[in-house]
Amino acid sequence: MFGGFQSKSVIRKVSVAVPVKPKPVVTENKSANPKSQISDKPNYNSKRADGARTIAPNRTKRSSSPVTRTESLVKRAVKRKALTPPPQWGESDDDNDDDSNDIESRSSKQGVASGANGQDSNLPPSASRKRIKSASNSVDPSRILFRQPSPPPPPSALTDDSHTQSINIIQASPTIMTLPDNQDQSFPLAHSADLVSNPSTSHKFRPFFLEEIASSISLQYPSSFSHSNENIQHRAERFYLADSIDIDGYKSSYDILETIRQVCLHYLPRQESEECSDDLTGFVRRLTRTMKGDLSTSCKDEFIKTIDEYNSLITKRLHDGTIERVLRSKHGLTFDWMKRILDQVYSRTVSPHVDMLKDYINGTDNVYGELLYPLVSEMFRETGLKSNQVFVDLGSGVGNVVLQAALEIGCEAWGCEMMPNPCGLADLQAEEFNQRARLWGVHVGRVRLVKGDFLETKEIAAVLKRADVVLVNNQAFGPDLNSKLIDKFLDLKDGCQVISLKSFKPDGFEIQDRNINDVRHLLKVRKLEYFSGRVSWTDAPGNYYIATKDPSELIKYHDGQKRKR
Q: Which comes out higher in pLDDT, residue 12 or 394?
């Protein structure tokens, strides 16, 4: 049986597998079927339905040698690379710096202040491509960034309620050594040392060197304050070398390092800036090394010595006019530079009282939420907001977006809020913001925060008529409030852009005779996407909308109806 099966099988194989061999072809047949040219090699192994193997007559081979084919692939790859557009987003200045990451892993970033102000270090990979390129942010050639030193305000200017509230909130604690009170009362800055020594929170801070009582330093900023032509004072901030033990608490170490980093990057000539920011020998690297050591007295002394060297350099560059010349050549702030200033404002005013913002009723129009720095910057870019324009935030909360517009863009910025707790914190922020801008030597746009209902306030009604960009965080607004807002848009000038989290105009809403008087026909709406980590109430991505007041479609419809008649 086995022998018979083998004999029969051999006969079948011979009868099928011995066809006439095709003649070799060495030239390419250009008239061949285009489908046959898809593969580099002809397919001699295709099967017919009866199982026999088929031979493709006159099928051609590629005549290219292996070397020629490799060169061809390389040429195509280079061509594709050359045609690829450059990336639109880049990493921020902080992303590639190991020192900053080391400090973050040791003591975390500024807690509540960071979370509330758009620190995007925890964003998923999908969101990283949307990060703002810090090297090219908010550059407006018409903007004057340098702030001319001015004489101190008169004593009467210090009797404002907001000043009194700011000073009363921050008091010294007997548990930590207090610095000599040499602060000029014409410059009521909320120092980092005041934040650390606050009686209600001082027990949460620990020295980041091995000492029982935290040492103190004075950090020089790149600005001067002129009392007269012969008496120029340089501004500095007081710090305790202590960090919060809470994961989300304020970190003096991070504040000091990031402040020095931004000053070295943006206020010194290029060569000196590179030397001071060097990854091996720069100020930040040297300070970080001391905090990675055994944290002994010698490490603390080396830390203070490095701070003194930095202070001496900045003071020298202020005296010889170098910082002024560098700042006069700039017309905008990078994202990280802007964020450092706003983070300092928020951490010293809102963060200590952030629980006050939770006092609202869910399901109402007054639910509180914040748009974070990256999303707000993106909105400014999409609308093309400029320094000579007017920005209005309806429902401005603690004033974050208003202050960001004034700092990042340099425009006139208005905000309106009716909830008492956010209004109080907004006043604190506005006062501190003005002092921080002076401290950093930058000129900012005019800020005006109004307390009241934005539907009823006369000041808001007046400014809306000349507004160029209006922001409405209507994520939690009900249909009735959104409808009333739409009626307010009648007062907007043509070309004004309204940013919202919910669209005021539904998809597919077309002009018809029965709805021709609807205000929403005046709006041209763009739908845009924001990525994870861009709002305070969720980590999920979402959408926002930019509606431009443009009556052209309505005019076109009217003209068409007239022609039909």
A: 394
